[in-house]
TrEMBL record, chains A, B:
Name of this protein: Crp/Fnr family transcriptional regulator
Domain of life assignment: Bacteria
Signal sequence annotation: none
Annotated ranges, domain Cyclic nucleotide-binding: 13-116
Source organism of this protein record: Flavobacterium humi
Gene3D superfamilies hit by this protein: Jelly Rolls (2.60.120.10)
Lineage, uppermost ranks: Bacteria, Pseudomonadati, Bacteroidota, Flavobacteriia, Flavobacteriales
């Protein structure tokens, strides 16, 4: 599906925009083609944009003081990603975002989003619900991390991203769950 | 400070409402006085409201499969709290919220918030930024949990809630950090 059509369908699920309003909104987005392994945000960067995924898969991750990688989010088509703390507060990035596969994304700057929200009430409505859903996903991830049952966390992950096990290298799935690759294999075998 | 004035000042930091618009908004809020230990949300409840804290302190928490308590959030004056996953999705509560101290809160129902956001663009703007900030706090909490350095997590907690160490029983601070009370004492002694 074309980027424009995918974004239009995605927004229409939450807010009603006229064709003219969507045209205006879409004019603020910049398409980008990314290669597997390409980085869009590194720790310490100034962050000006958020990204809507059209195709491919990205990961948002964090390297802790013991050089261990944790994955915060896998960003699939119709997901949004950025370092939102840095984007909203104007602070430096504390996470990294890069591409697991080749990807097509649409980029929207912070100032353009605010301009659009101020100009069009339905766009403000859309972005409020977009963040509400992000907030829920983040709370769910918190609860999942606090719960020690790795098997349950693995099942939740597969429910959220059914196609993940075939798409994404196993060590990245282990890094999302915070378990070793051996534990992941055991969970997967027990599962099927 | 009176509940009305506190909410008005809180909203004015993000959105410009006329006196008449604020009057209309405020008419949808219901004040509640709560006693120390009182519960407002229990796991399994239907959740219809979110809560703005006027005075006192509440905690949002979760009991995992090993009957261990984790604290997701301490809610202080001008903070909002609810089980937002349950509130937004219409699902049953997966967390508990109760009062650490006596508290005064203002209650707003889900349907009234949507009515207000639809009627007044500045109110939709306010709630978008309220959730943006909640999302950032949630992401920060995630990163903090993923980082193994308990000392750093403790320092971040004190920076976020400077008055917390005197206000809140020590076992609750330990439950927020996910450490034992002994570790907390060691962190506190090393700190001062």
């Amino acid at each position: 599906m074309q980027a424009r059509e995918l974004l239009q369908q995605h927004i229409a699920k939450t807010a009603s925009l006229t064709e003219e309003q969507f045209e205006y909104l879409f004019s603020f987005f910049t398409p980008m083609s990314l290669k597997k392994g390409q980085t869009i945000i590194s720790e310490g960067d100034k962050v000006d944009c958020e990204y809507f995924v059209v195709s491919g898969c990205l990961k948002a991750f964090f390297i802790n003081d013991e050089i261990k990688m944790y994955i915060l989010q896998f960003a699939m088509p119709t997901w949004w990603t950025s370092d939102y703390a840095a984007l909203y507060n104007g602070t430096k990035a504390t996470i990294h975002i890069d591409c697991i596969t080749d990807a097509e994304i649409l980029c929207l700057s912070n100032s353009d989003r605010e301009k659009l929200c101020s100009a069009l009430h339905p766009v403000e409505h859309f972005f409020r619900w977009r963040t509400n859903r992000g907030y829920i996903a983040s709370q769910k991830r918190l609860l999942s991390l606090m719960n020690n049952d790795a098997k349950k966390r693995y099942e939740e992950l597969l429910a959220q991203y059914p196609q993940l096990y075939n798409l994404v290298p196993k060590h990245l799935i282990a890094a999302y769950l915070g378990v070793s690759r051996e534990t992941l294999s055991r969970l997967h075998t027990g599962q099927h």
